């Protein structure tokens, strides 16, 4: 992780911190309807590993465990279950009609700053259909509304041009570059974007 994000850090009252933690603890799904993602469970480790093992899925994401094994993915899920209990993190999986995992969402929360970060990926078969942009927009709006956040901070590697375009297109503001640390201790440079609650809903009215 990068301890230099979020860039915008505005302390919020204890009442807001408590409300954010309570909201995180109470969540069961991300989104609504048949395409909603559910919370990851310990028994999802083999299926999540199968999804993440595709290099096009895992290569751009620095927060995933390294190396990817069933044990490390199981620990990844367990860590997120503990984070939810603290009101500081969420891990969701999205399944297709056959029950295979075709996407995941990893949310980091900083309750004391009313800020959060969304990471994740979709199966390559779902790329270039507009689903990534629509899904990201839905998720960001959900984070503001359901988790009572004021700021969303996102990062991407300098080479990850599709994510740059997505965040720029959704109205995020570029905030410079930080050093991100992978789970194995190696580092990479990451570009940073942020958007505030007010700016998001001024631009996205639905």
Task: Write a concise keyword list for the protein shown above.
206 residues; alpha+beta; Aminopeptidase; eight-stranded mixed beta sheet; 7 helices; 36% helix
CATH architecture of the domain at 14-149: 3-Layer(aba) Sandwich
Oligomer: single chain
* DSSP strand tally: 8
Write down the overall mean pLDDT: 92
- Topology pattern, helix = H, strand = E: HEEHHHEEEHEHEEH
Describe the strand arrangement of the main beta sheet, using strand numbers.
Answer: 1-2-3-4-5-6-8-7
Structural class: alpha+beta
The Rg value, from CA coordinates, equals 16 Å
Summed up, the helix count is: 7
What are the segments in which pLDDT stays under 50 over at least 5 consecutive residues? Answer: none
Write a structural description.
The chain is α+β, with helices and mostly antiparallel strands. The chain has a domain of 136 residues: Gcn5-related N-acetyltransferase (GNAT) (Aminopeptidase). Helix content is 36%, strand content 27%. Strands 1-2-3-4-5-6-8-7 form an eight-stranded mixed β-sheet, with helices on both faces. Strand 7 and strand 8 form a beta hairpin. The longest helix is centred in the middle third of the chain and has 17 residues. It is globular and about 40 Å long. It starts with 13 loop residues before the first helix and ends with a helix.
